[in-house]
Every structure is written in structure tokens, then in C-alpha cells.
Amino acid sequence: MQQIKSQIRDILDFPKPGVIFKDLTPVIGDRRSLQRVTQCLADPFRHSGITAVAGMEARGFIFGALVARELEVGFIPLRKPGKLPAKAHSVSYELEYGAAALEMHMDAAGERDKVLLVDDLIATGGTAAASCELVNKTGAGIAGFAFVIELDFLGGRESLCDYTVHSLIHF
């Protein structure tokens, strides 16, 4: 993971002043790093009975879809409002630098499903907690969370204390 961590670049003052954005595009652009990250995100959940992976817009789509392929299950997109064509559940939440909302098709999962939630990064945990709430609205179970990066100093993991949280790289 040290080699992958060295590929992550800091972008200062993005998306607003005072924020240091952790840019994973160099990792995504390197096929070996991307393959390694995908395998490492999936490994702890290979024998967990997962029936689907859900990924948060936007970078969670990249890693979530790849993890779903690695685990040989389907992928559920968790989208920004107004982007899904069928009836959807919606959850609003606070980010470290504003407010947001996510939506999920009502029929994307059900009571027999066990969903792994995947995103590129966990900061304060707002997006992850909202995603958990969305999946719970369908009656599906949560297998856990997998993140490429965890910003430990923001304490996001604490909002997910009832679930397994797997992060590859810590800052």
C-alpha cells in the first residue's frame, strides 16, 4: 500500500479554500495500482455472502463497480438527486464543507440482499452514514464498508460503529 499511497496527490484548496483534496486519479490511471486496490478492497468480504456492492457518486462508482466485478455480484449506484430514472429513496446529509443528498432506486436491493458499500474516501462519515440509511430503506442488510482512503483525524469511522469498516490507506 505504500507505493499506492505515494501516488495519491494533494490538491490544495479544492473544492474550497482550506480543504486538501486527496486525488486518486494517478492510482486509477495505473492499471497495476488499480487492480491491487480493487483486490484489497474486496478481500475481507470475499466470503461474506455479499449479493451486491453499492458505490457513492462519483468516485465510489469507479471503485464500487470494480469491487462488484471482483466479487462477481451486481453494482448499485447511489446517485445525486434527479439522476435516477425510476422511483428512488432519498437521504440528505451534511458534508465537511456543505450539504448533499443521495438517491437509490427503491427496487435496487431487498430483504434478501447483503450490500457492501464502497467509496474512495471516508472523512466525517456523512456520505457513508447516508448511504447506509438508503440501503436500510430497502430492507437489505449491510455487509460493511470499504474505502481506499480514511482521514483518521476526522473520525468518520465512529459514525459507522455498528459495521465492519475496511480502509486501505490512512492519513
Blueprint of the fold:
Blueprint: H1 2-7, E1 9-12, E2 20-23, H2 25-29, H3 31-42, E3 52-56, H4 59-71, E4 74-78, E5 88-95, E6 98-105, E7 114-122, H5 126-137, E8 141-150, E9 165-170
Parallel strand pairs: 3-4, 3-7, 7-8, 8-9
Antiparallel strand pairs: 1-2, 5-6
Helix pairs in contact: 3-4
Provide an overview of this structure:
With 171 residues, the protein is of the alpha/beta class. The protein has a single domain, classed as Rossmann fold (3-Layer(aba) Sandwich). The protein has five helices and nine strands; from the N terminus they run H-E-E-H-H-E-H-E-E-E-E-H-E-E. The strands form three sheets. It has a five-stranded parallel beta sheet with strand order 4-3-7-8-9, with helices on both faces. Strand 3, helix 4 and strand 4 form a beta-alpha-beta unit. Helix 3 crosses helix 4.
Detail the poorly predicted runs.
none
Number of helices: 5
Any idea what the shape is?
globular
What is the count of β-strands? 9
Count of folded domains: 1
Overall CATH class: Alpha Beta
Instruction: Please write the string of helix (H) and strand (E) elements.
Output: HEEHHEHEEEEHEE
Characterize the biggest β-sheet. Answer: 5 strands, parallel
* Spatial order of the strands forming the largest sheet: 4-3-7-8-9
Instruction: State the helicity in percent bands.
Output: 25-40%
Return the structural class: alpha/beta
**Gap from first CA to last CA:** 13 Å
- Just name the CATH architecture: 3-Layer(aba) Sandwich
